[in-house]
Amino acid sequence: MQRIRNSWELGKISWSVLRSDRTLAWFPVLSGLASLLVIGVFAGLVATTGVETTDGKESLQAIGYVFVVVGYIVLAFVATYFLAALVHGANERLEGHDASLSSSLGAANAKLHRILPWAIVQGTVSVIISAIEERAGFVGQIIVRLIGAAWAIVTFLTIPIIMMEDLGPWNALKRSGTLLKQTWGENVVAQAGFGLFAMVASIPGIALIAIGVATNEVAALVGLGAIGVVWVLVVSVVVSAMSGIYRIALYRFAVDGKAPGAFANADLGGAFGPGKSATR
């Protein structure tokens, strides 16, 4: 219960940081728009290659699978790039400076030689997990999802590490594993907490969409559906921005031994266990 209360408090502080500098919310927006563009491009490429029929079963052409894999990696790069920019901007805000799109994107650009290799790792892992999950049975799918959740926990602080310490993929992953020894409890609770918050906050939007569908009227479906979709998208943007702020705060405390900026009065010590902090 203490960790849950602590996670809730840190979530509120992340929200207050976001409210103090709404520029931070633009990075998830840009990430979402870029992701839609990537999906559209690669969906078009897959569609143009068509399918082949073997033994009465339809499947993608070989080049279609190549496009799917490359698409996964490009999507991973988009998500990683804008998360890196968000982490930089959030760190600037926690240090008392105003975040800006240009400086944060510039910081991400300066780390492209680190971001791209890590995106390839993330994209490859996503492809492997998805491929195994599709072919696994019910129990196998549960196991694969647990593996995916474990991977998310282990890599939670990788982007702050890349941005702040300029490490390559392997060293950043090892470093993240080291910090996990101090952050695992709050790391797990935080990810579950942000996921739960997103789910609960999305309920009004989902309800509006459901009501629109239930009316069987085009005008109601379009109107309520549009409002509902926008609501869900806004929730997604806000939670993504809060998660980025939370990551850099946990990283800074683990490395510096003290909470940064707005988190100074929070019980961040509870995130790492009594008297523990990581060292470089």
Q: Can you describe this structure?
A:
With 280 residues, the protein is an all-alpha fold. It has one domain (2-272). 80% of the residues lie in helices and 3% in strands. The protein is built from ten helices and two strands, in the order H-H-E-E-H-H-H-H-H-H-H-H. It has helices at residues 2-20, 26-49, 62-94, 101-110, 112-135, 138-154, 158-165, 169-215, 218-256, 269-272; strands at residues 51-54, 57-60. The chain has a two-stranded antiparallel ribbon. The protein starts with a helix and ends in an 8-residue tail after the last helix. The relative contact order is 0.14.
List the helices and strands and how they pair.
Blueprint: H1 2-20, H2 26-49, E1 51-54, E2 57-60, H3 62-94, H4 101-110, H5 112-135, H6 138-154, H7 158-165, H8 169-215, H9 218-256, H10 269-272
Antiparallel strand pairs: 1-2
Helix pairs in contact: 1-8, 1-9, 2-3, 2-9, 3-4, 3-5, 3-7, 3-9, 5-6, 7-8, 8-9
The assembly state of the depicted protein chains is single chain
Beta-strand percent range: under 5%
Number of helices: 10
Number of strands: 2
| Mean pLDDT value | 81
Global outline: globular
Low-confidence stretches: 271-280
The major sheet is characterized as:
2 strands, antiparallel
Give the number of domains: 1
State Rg: 20 Å
